[in-house]
Specification:
The protein is an alpha+beta fold. It has five domains: 48 residues; 142 residues, Sandwich (Jelly Rolls), CATH 2.60.120; 180 residues, no CATH class; 79 residues, Alpha-Beta Plaits (2-Layer Sandwich), CATH 3.30.70; 94 residues. It has ten helices and 40 strands. The longest helix is centred in the N-terminal third of the chain and has 20 residues. The protein is flat, with a radius of gyration of 36 Å. The relative contact order is 0.10.
């Protein structure tokens, strides 16, 4: 390891003493070294200056830490907005995207998706098996109870039946509350299409296309959007029935639902002050488009057209509000027709439009104060439109992006930095980052969204009010809000990352990374180096690592299916060393029966003993089970005075048992507690003589 150097290793007195000690060699005629001598005064001044330089050189600043962290591939994470769900009544009016809501404390939220005027009306939710029906809609009302829609019967599985009295307009959208099981948590999914099971969505025998499935086949809470068929006849009770059936159950947990909703939508804790809308318009004297969000409906507008030589701002446009947003009409006959975006419409919050336009002086390192009312900008979409000097000498508006550090920018890079503490943006100095062009209104906010960060995480059960009409809606818990990560937090995150290798090197790495397979719930994994189950002897002739994996939530003795094993093997194949073969295999369960006789002064708890034996067996996968270790567990039971006799028997799994009673398990074998017999003898029993 590199040792940190201490550059501030001399005091002022030591520097003066060392300098005065060299004077006889440097200048022998200088004999007066007392404090009244002017030369000594200058020497002491330089010593003070050298001491100050040493102090500053020895400081490890946050800016230096950020640069070193960036070399290691780590940058402080930006602020993030919290997300919650809001539940609208069936008779609630339509809402546009970005419609604003507020808590009683004034924390702003925006709808992340539009709410149509005609929505599906949910009438019944039931679980069906054959001709049997069990209504669960009333069961769920306010009591947060759960049910299994795909429970297995003796002959066939059940299915979920959802009845609608009205289908609304557009695609069918449903929200499912899924109860997450206990035990091993599910790893984040790798892609939107990944799912642990296969479901079939049908309407009166017609299979429906899934347009969006945020639940990953009902593995977590979220929205499912289905393409509505052209013809959907009404069924029993005059309702439109949607049937959800399980075609492939997978090997993990059974689905448990706690609610089905048609009026639940997402809201994000943010407030949009500026937003850019880009279009590829055809050349026409009266080209028009409609901005379909609530922010654009009342916003002040700035319209820019891209011609052959670059972007220009135009005042030749008209706007009119509509029910769906705002209609914009402008002349695009002179726009460039090369297939790229040629129209940009910037919508500005009318209450803050003046604060989003800045006058530039064109000075190096110019800084603007944003006045964000104590909130922070979400930097992933933060952008400014600035008057920029182009290579041809013309000044045109151009988009500038927010970066973490200007030190890596060149003299023509259009970038700026954002300081969330001071609420300022800073531009380059002409060497690191381009200079601004001097002018009135030279800088305009093109995309700016504000959030309260961690302050937006609110508990469930509250209410939000729409800014327009003051209507109240119920909201769930807002989660995911976070402030900008500090340098120290980023440094700690790097240290945690370095603790664990992201490549398979040791057997522990194979086991740890197998448990992190994306989208799976892996309860346990055991790596067996140099073991090949395909060889008769079990010893591999080529470098092979066999990984035994057990899925989570699959019952008492879960078995992985082919998809589960393929996912683990595909994941480990990308992390293994070159030349090493990886095999993901299922476990082989072996029953271990335990028979014991104990002398006790009370009732020894057999259930407690069974739990302890199961925990002991879980640690012995592919190992050796010893009689004396099992006897020690029995001896530790409350009320047991002495263990008289213990006998272990192994059934199946290729186990071998020697004369001493030890059971040796093959690497792929997982022991399970089979039959347990506990004989309790009273304390008066004399085990040696066999009499009372």
């Amino acid at each position: 390891m590199l040792k940190s150097r201490n550059l501030d290793d001399q005091t002022y007195a030591q520097i003066v003493e060392a300098a005065e000690g060299r004077l006889p060699w440097l200048c022998p005629v200088w004999t007066d070294h007392n404090a009244h001598d002017p030369g000594i005064t200058v020497l002491e001044l330089m010593a003070w200056y050298k001491e100050m330089q040493q102090y500053h050189l020895n400081q490890f600043t946050d800016a230096l830490r950020c640069k070193l962290l960036k070399l290691a591939g780590v940058s402080p994470r930006p602020a993030a907005a919290a997300v919650c769900t809001v539940e609208l009544d069936a008779d609630a009016p339509a809402r546009l995207e970005l419609a604003r809501l507020r808590t009683q404390e004034g924390i702003p939220f925006e709808l992340a998706e539009p709410v149509p005027a005609r929505r599906p009306r949910l009438a019944r939710v039931c679980v069906a098996r054959g001709t049997e029906r069990m209504d669960v809609g009333e069961l769920l009302g306010g009591r947060r109870m759960t049910f299994q829609p795909f429970g297995g019967g003796r002959v066939e599985r059940s299915c979920l039946r959802v009845g609608f009295s009205a289908l609304g307009e557009g695609p069918l959208r449903l929200w499912f509350d899924v109860k997450e099981p206990s035990g091993a948590p599910r790893n984040p999914f790798e892609s939107p299409e990944q799912a642990p099971r296969v479901l079939r969505w049908a309407a009166e025998g017609q299979t429906l296309e899934v347009l969006l499935d945020e639940t990953h086949a009902l593995s977590r809470s979220g929205c499912v959007t289905l393409a509505r068929p052209e013809e959907w006849p009404a069924g029993e009770d005059g309702l439109y029935w949607l049937t959800v059936s399980l075609e492939d159950a997978g090997c993990e947990e059974s689905v448990r639902l706690s609610g089905v909703f048609t009026g639940r939508y997402r809201a994000v804790q943010r407030e949009t002050w500026a937003k850019s809308h880009c279009f590829r318009a055809q050349a026409a004297p009266d080209w028009q488009t409609e901005l379909t969000d609530a922010q654009a409906r009342e916003a002040e507008l700035a319209v820019f057209l891209r011609q052959e030589d670059g972007w220009v701002q135009t005042a030749d446009w008209q706007a009119a509000p509509t029910e769906a947003g705002r209609l914009i009409r402008t002349d695009t006959t002179r726009t460039a027709q090369d297939g790229a975006d040629n129209v940009r419409i910037v919508t500005l919050d009318p209450a803050r439009a003046r604060r989003l336009l800045f006058d530039a002086k064109g000075l190096p390192g110019e800084t603007f104060f944003l006045d964000l009312e104590g909130r922070t900008v979400l930097t992933d979409t933060f952008a400014l439109l600035c008057e920029t000097l182009e290579r041809d000498g013309a000044v045109r508006p151009a988009l500038w992006r927010c970066v973490d550090d200007l030190s890596q920018c060149g003299p023509r890079d259009r970038a700026f930095t954002y300081d969330p503490v001071r609420e300022t943006v800073t531009f380059g100095d002409g060497e690191h980052g381009a200079l601004l062009r001097r002018g009135t209104g030279a800088v305009l906010a093109a995309d700016m969204t504000l959030s309260c960060g961690s302050g937006g995480n609110i508990p469930a059960g509250g209410q939000l009010r729409f800014d327009g009409d003051g209507a109240c809606v119920r909201c769930g818990a807002a989660e995911g809000g976070a402030d900008r990560e500090t340098v120290l937090q980023a440094q700690e995150r790097l240290a945690r990352r370095l603790e664990n290798s992201h490549k398979c090197v040791s057997a522990a790495d194979y086991e740890r990374l197998a448990r992190q397979t994306p989208g799976l719930r892996v309860a346990a994994a055991r790596a067996l180096p140099a073991y090949d189950p395909e060889e008769p002897t079990g010893v591999s002739r080529t470098p092979t690592v066999t990984v035994v994996v057990i899925p989570g939530g699959g019952g008492e003795r879960p078995m992985p299916d082919a998809r589960f094993l393929a996912a683990v093997q595909r994941w480990l194949d990308g992390l293994r060393p070159i030349g090493t073969r990886v095999l993901a295999v299922p476990p082989v369960y072996a029953d271990i029966s335990v028979s014991a006789s104990v002398i006790c002064d009370g009732a020894a708890d057999e259930a407690l003993l069974a739990d302890r034996l199961r925990a002991y067996f879980a640690e012995k996968s592919g190992g050796t089970i010893r009689t004396e270790e099992a006897a020690a567990l029995i001896q530790a039971l409350p009320g047991v005075l002495r263990v008289k006799e213990v006998e272990l028997r192994a059934l199946g799994g290729g186990c071998r048992q020697d004369r001493s009673g030890e059971i040796r398990l093959p690497g792929q074998t997982v022991p399970c507690l089979g039959r347990l017999r506990l004989e309790r003898l009273p304390a008066e029993w004399d085990g040696a003589a066999g009499r009372r």
